[in-house]
């Protein structure tokens, strides 16, 4: 599960997000309802948690709701534990090196 926090006061949104993370709940923040939530990308996988769309190397992947929920949690957890949030992570075989580049 991923929660979207829509709050125009950044410090309040961050405090709520931090509290949810302590409970192992992934959360994204937006300053208003029109702000586009982030799309997660990792190793050729592109995941849009709010449209429930998944693409692997540009090709659409059809998942059940449960499969999508599991993938969303895993991708959010991986990205949350990688130093320097906002990085795209490339598989070593695809990128030819370790690490990532700035998104």
Textual characterization of the structure:
The protein has 103 residues and is an alpha+beta fold. Helices cover 33% and strands 29% of the residues. It is built from 3 helices and 8 strands. The strands form 3 sheets. It has a 4-stranded antiparallel β-sheet, covered by helices on one side. The protein has a two-stranded parallel sheet with strand order 1-2. A hairpin with a 4-residue loop joins β4 (45-48) and β5. The protein is globular.
At a glance:
This protein has helices at 10-22, 65-81, 92-95; strands at residues 2-6, 26-30, 40-42, 45-48, 53-56, 59-61, 87-89, 100-102. The protein is α+β, with helices and mostly antiparallel strands. The radius of gyration is 14 Å and the shape is globular.
For this entry, give a set of tags.
alpha+beta, 3 helices, four-stranded antiparallel beta sheet, 103 residues, 8 strands
SSE layout and pairing:
Layout lengths: L1 E5 L3 H13 L3 E5 L9 E3 L2 E4 L4 E4 L2 E3 L3 H17 L5 E3 L2 H4 L4 E3 L1
Parallel strand pairs: 1-2
Antiparallel strand pairs: 3-4, 4-5, 5-6, 7-8
What is the total tally of β strands?
A: 8
Strand order of the largest sheet: 3-4-5-6
Looking at how many chains there are and whether they match, the oligomeric state comes to: single chain
* Overall average pLDDT: 75
Instruction: Give the radius of gyration.
Output: 14 Å
Q: Biggest sheet, in brief?
A: 4 strands, antiparallel
């Amino acid at each position: 599960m991923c929660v979207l926090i829509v709050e125009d006061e950044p410090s309040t949104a961050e405090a709520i997000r931090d509290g949810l993370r302590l409970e192992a709940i992934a959360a994204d923040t937006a300053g208003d309802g029109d702000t586009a939530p982030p799309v997660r990308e990792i190793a050729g996988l592109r995941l849009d948690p709010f449209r429930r769309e998944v693409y692997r190397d540009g090709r659409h992947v059809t998942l059940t709701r449960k499969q999508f929920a599991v993938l969303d949690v895993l991708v959010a957890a991986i990205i949350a534990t990688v130093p320097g949030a906002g990085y795209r992570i490339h598989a070593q075989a695809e990128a030819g090196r370790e690490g990532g580049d700035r998104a």
